[in-house]
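Incident log, support desk, overnight shift.

02:14 A customer reports that sequence design results differ from what the structure should imply. Their input is reproduced verbatim below. On-call engineer (initials T.W.) acknowledged and began investigating.
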């Protein structure tokens, strides 16, 4: 995520709970009826999986106290864009390379299916796609994504197709939302405008994905936030707004909101107020290691990190130590008593923090993750 660095258990069907459907009706702003959306939401294009268009939300949830393993998934890759860029530059931004690099594409359901099957093989229950909003929401390209950041919405239909394939085979993977808060563009999330922009990002993402695929804890869909560097101001009302609107749009369900440390307290409000949501984590396990502080509810783990390939000042390089660096963190996660373990990352190639299959490491990190994920979900100590 650039320079801003601060689950033997089987998830049996009997352990899942079905969230009740609701006939709750959203208000005019959330529906888009009766009132036009304001100009600053001109980019907003919500999908059909929301009230009142859709009234059934068959979310198959993890139990409220069930242990779960998640991972951050970056889907902005496109082989043609990568090779075109390579023809012009004198370095390779990727330290490690997936074996399918020649065909990788955010438009290809087969690519998602391959990655999702590997996640299941690693014992991962929840994929957290790094979401960059809709066309027009953040009008700057972020490499390696082509065409501004259209991948964020263009990638969702093939992603859903891959999830459908897995579900049809009886091996479902659940999908949550990881908001890359860079797209907040320094908004004030204590104002009506800022709250609407923040919530529209969350609503529009989930409304494009069939609810049977949603990742939920205790019937509450996962909303996971990256850091707050590109958010000017927020307080508890920012989250209260999301809870209220989400319930109206999604059958009475309340989201399970996990914040990065920078969201711990109100920002730029003149009051150092501690905020309340369902989870708190620290980004940076890949370069800096496991965060032991008991304030964190998420066991964040990572295999190593490097950005020195970019030849920038003050690069960071954290050696993998043949897997020992990652395994040490996995052991700490098992001892932490936390409910959710989050792997940082599945495939952030530009930061060399992925555990995906690569030419250089094969499936070493997939197998290592599975060994510890099974024990984590079973509540067992390290081997």
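02:41 Re-run completed on a clean worker. Output:
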């Amino acid at each position: 995520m650039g320079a801003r660095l601060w689950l033997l258990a089987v998830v049996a069907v009997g352990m899942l709970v079905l969230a009740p459907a609701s006939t709750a009706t959203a208000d005019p702003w959330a529906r888009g009826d009766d009132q036009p959306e304001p100009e600053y939401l001109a980019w907003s294009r919500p999908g059909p999986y929301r009230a009142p268009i859709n009234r059934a939300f068959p979310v198959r949830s993890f139990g409220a106290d069930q242990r779960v393993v998640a991972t951050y998934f970056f889907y902005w890759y496109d082989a043609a864009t990568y090779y075109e860029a390579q023809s012009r530059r004198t370095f390779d931004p990727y330290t490690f390379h997936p074996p399918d690099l020649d065909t990788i594409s955010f438009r290809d359901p087969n690519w998602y299916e391959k990655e999702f099957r590997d996640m299941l093989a690693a014992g991962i229950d929840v994929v957290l796609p790094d979401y960059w909003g809709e066309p027009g929401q953040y009008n700057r390209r972020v490499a390696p994504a082509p065409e501004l950041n259209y991948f964020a919405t263009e990638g969702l239909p093939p992603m859903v197709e891959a999830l459908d394939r897995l579900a049809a085979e009886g091996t479902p993977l659940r999908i949550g939302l990881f908001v890359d808060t860079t797209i907040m563009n320094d908004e004030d999330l204590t104002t009506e405008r800022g709250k609407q922009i923040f919530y529209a990002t969350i609503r529009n993402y989930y409304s494009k994905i069939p609810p049977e695929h949603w990742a939920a804890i205790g019937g509450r869909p996962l909303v996971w936030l990256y850091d707050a560097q590109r958010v000017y101001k927020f307080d508890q009302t920012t989250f209260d707004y999301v809870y209220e609107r989400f319930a109206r749009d999604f059958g009475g369900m309340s989201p399970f909101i996990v914040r990065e440390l920078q969201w711990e307290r109100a920002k730029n409000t003149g009051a150092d107020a501690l905020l309340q949501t369902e989870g708190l984590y620290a980004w940076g396990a890949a370069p800096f290691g496991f965060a032991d502080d008991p304030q964190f509810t998420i066991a964040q783990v990572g295999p190593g990190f490097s950005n020195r390939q970019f030849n920038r000042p003050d690069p960071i390089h954290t050696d993998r130590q043949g897997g020992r660096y990652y395994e040490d963190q996995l052991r700490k996660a098992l001892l932490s008593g936390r409910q959710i373990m989050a792997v940082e990352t599945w495939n952030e190639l530009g930061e060399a923090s992925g555990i995906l299959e690569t030419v250089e490491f094969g499936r070493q990190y997939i197998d290592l993750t599975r060994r510890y994920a099974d024990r984590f979900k079973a509540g067992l100590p390290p081997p």
